[in-house]
């Protein structure tokens, strides 16, 4: 098997720099901030309700949705982010988390149903 790079090439390191293109960071579906190291692929319409589409989210944003909505409510909202942001608890959370680091994580309130 042939070598990919010659071990005697004095300029080999220069050719190998930046070979892999940078992968764009997807924004969070709920808060629109760039996602961090941990990305949760959330089903806006729960799988138990026939949802197949997934969207990238921060774990803390997904926990907030689960704490504030039932599966039936999430099914009714579907892919409508504005409908979810109309909830005062979710709007307050998104305004608060907007200034945080993408990898920020904290405990969320229990389900408020």
Describe the structure in your own words:
This protein is mostly helical. The protein has a domain of 59 residues. The chain is elongated. The model has no long low-confidence stretch (mean pLDDT 84).
Q: Based on Cα principal axes, name the global outline.
A: elongated
Rg for CA atoms: 21 Å
Spatial strand order of the main sheet: 1-2
Beta-strand fraction estimate: 5-15%
Instruction: Give the SSE order as H and E letters.
Output: HEEHHHH
Main sheet properties: 2 strands, antiparallel
Helix content: 25-40%
Structural class: mainly alpha
**Mean pLDDT level:** 84
Give the termini distance in whole angstroms.
63 Å
Can you count the beta strands?
2
SS summary, helix count: 5
Residue stretches low in confidence (pLDDT < 50, at least 5 long) are none
Protein name: HNH endonuclease
Region (Disordered): 1-23
Biased composition (Basic and acidic residues): 8-19
Organism: Sphingopyxis bauzanensis
